[in-house]
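Q: Sequence in, structure out?
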Amino acid sequence: MAGAAAFDPRPGHLLQPARFRLSRPEIRALVSTTTVAFYLLATLMTASSLGVALSHNIVYSAFALMGALLGAAGIFVLLGADFVGVVQLLIYVGGILVLSLFAIMLTHRIADVQVSNRSVGRGVATVLIGLVLVGMMRVAVRATWVTSDVAAPAPTTYGVGTAFLSDFVLPFEIASLVLLVALIGAVMVSRKELRG
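A: Exactly. Output:
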């Protein structure tokens, strides 16, 4: 019970601890809402990533990729990086993934593609993944973790916007020009293909 008394979140913190009563009244577990949310998001990301890698249907793989990207956005928000989480949601889930789904669904007879040698190397890959997982778990258990007080989450959007329009205005504008040139080039290439 000494470990439970050491957990003391700051007052007014968004993620307050939740007390869960176990079957015996003398045993109490103190689990923070952040920890529960992290493990739920990690489970969603792991299951979705396995769905992407192991699904035989490319459409199901794309939908599973959406779950993995949503889980990553949730973890960014948990870490206090709200701007990065929203950008992840808008650009990757809202833009790139939807574009990929449209490309998959508009491709003629993509479901009829037969892949030979589908199971080549699965045994070797499973052994390698297992060895890497065991190694990572050993390192995680033996490592001395440095802990510090958790600061109260604060919005980061204002700081990012101020940095983009003051200190980093030149790289920001150069990146926008590169994207504009890429967009014009894509339009020109597609128009040439339509004429030909």
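The chain is about 65% helix and 5% strand.
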